[in-house]
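explain this chain.
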Amino acid sequence: MEELAIFRIFSSFPLFGILLPDLSSLFTYPIKGIPEAHIYVEGFLLLSVIICTAGIWYHEKQMKVNNVNVAGVNQQLPSAGI
């Protein structure tokens, strides 16, 4: 899980590193446009950040469900008269 979060952080660095100069050049020279290769790279990096975020969110949700189930089982055992 920690590796996924680290990958998400380090994949967003090049995304912002490419995106910021492209946006600034788009504002100063709107006719020039953004190179096609930059669009593909930015799209791939954005997709990887989204997938990592969804994976982290799903894993945390599963951990909450597992913790609630374990807490529910622990609370039921003493009342069973054992």
Remarks:
- The helical segments are 2-28, 36-79.
- Residues 25 and 31 are 10 Å apart (CA to CA).
